Amino acid sequence: MPPGPTPAPLVRSVFFEDLELLLKFAGPNTSLLRELGLHSGTKVSMRGSEVLISGAPEDVELAARFVRDATGLLQEGIELHLRDVSHSLRGLRADKTASLVDYLDQTILLTPRRKPIVPKTAAQRAYVGAIRAHTLTFGIGPAGTGKTYLAMAMAASALLQRKVKRIILTRPAVEAGENLGFLPGDLAEKVNPYLRPLYDALNDMVDYEKLQQLRSQNLIEVAPLAFMRGRTLNDAFVVLDEAQNTTSDQMKMFLTRLGYGCRAVVTGDITQTDLPRGRRSGLAQARDILGGVKDISFCEFTDVDVVRHPLVQRIVLAYDKFDEEQLQKREAASERS
């Protein structure tokens, strides 16, 4: 039976009473309109005081929801950025009851440049909610999903609002192992390369002079995991990054450091451990042991939650596909033998 005629594209018009608001929504050289069309699968253009959207009905409805919600956010003074478009549209497409406000109006912290740090996907929103509601939260998933960045933003916000007395950021220097001795410099210089990503994130969140002041007062501490042994961490917000590289003993040591008034977040990607072959990740074991324990939350991220450059998401998917193919080949070879 021959296919029926292709249905005519639906055309939807969204009118803006305020031309200045329309220009703000469209972005420089209508860049945001182009981004909206690209990721919604529609054709989006301006005509006078209108935004015209055409395409398949479901795609047009999605883009129109985005435009309506974005208009409301702009009127409230919340900025839209190109990087917000793709992940917001994925969320809106997946949840017909969701609103753009659910993705963009949950400011955790304003950066020194007045850029709001907000959770951008459903998993990120759940993650931030879990951190607020639990003493210990695990964020597990691939690179680029915002696990560490959001945890550090929550830590900075808590310190600046005086909900905690200090921040402690730590990660295992697993690649250094027992070889720290022949790296150049004193101990701080030896481990600094492993802590650099944490410093970079802090510099993005807190004014430089304020950050130096907080560090000089020991209100922000960035240290390798080995420095946690023997301590009790009271009234602190603690973030353990790259936790897939902890051993079982290291993870237990860290978790038993938590004291009164402490809030902790543990982040990592179980599929990317740098531990020696045959050594099980302390993060993987903690998930098995602590699931269901009161006041502990586990938040899982997937490639859908990658909010870095869109290329990062495609890279993650390509590697996942490769890993799956290699696993199938090994299983097939095992069956033949």
Offer a quick outline of the entry:
The chain has helices spanning 19-26, 31-40, 57-75, 82-94, 100-104, 122-133, 147-160, 187-205, 208-216, 248-255, 282-290, 310-336; strands at 10-15, 43-47, 50-55, 109-110, 116-117, 136-140, 166-171, 220-224, 236-240, 263-268, 296-300.
Describe the structure.
- This protein is of the alpha/beta class and 337 residues long.
- It has helices spanning 19-26, 31-40, 57-75, 82-94, 100-104, 122-133, 147-160, 187-205, 208-216, 248-255, 282-290, 310-336; strands at 10-15, 43-47, 50-55, 109-110, 116-117, 136-140, 166-171, 220-224, 236-240, 263-268, 296-300.
- The protein has a 6-stranded parallel β-sheet, sandwiched between helices. It has a 3-stranded antiparallel β-sheet with strand order 1-3-2.
- The radius of gyration is 23 Å and the shape is globular.
- The N and C termini lie far apart (48 Å).
Key terms:
single chain, 337 residues, alpha/beta, six-stranded parallel β-sheet, three-stranded antiparallel β-sheet, 12 helices, 11 strands, globular
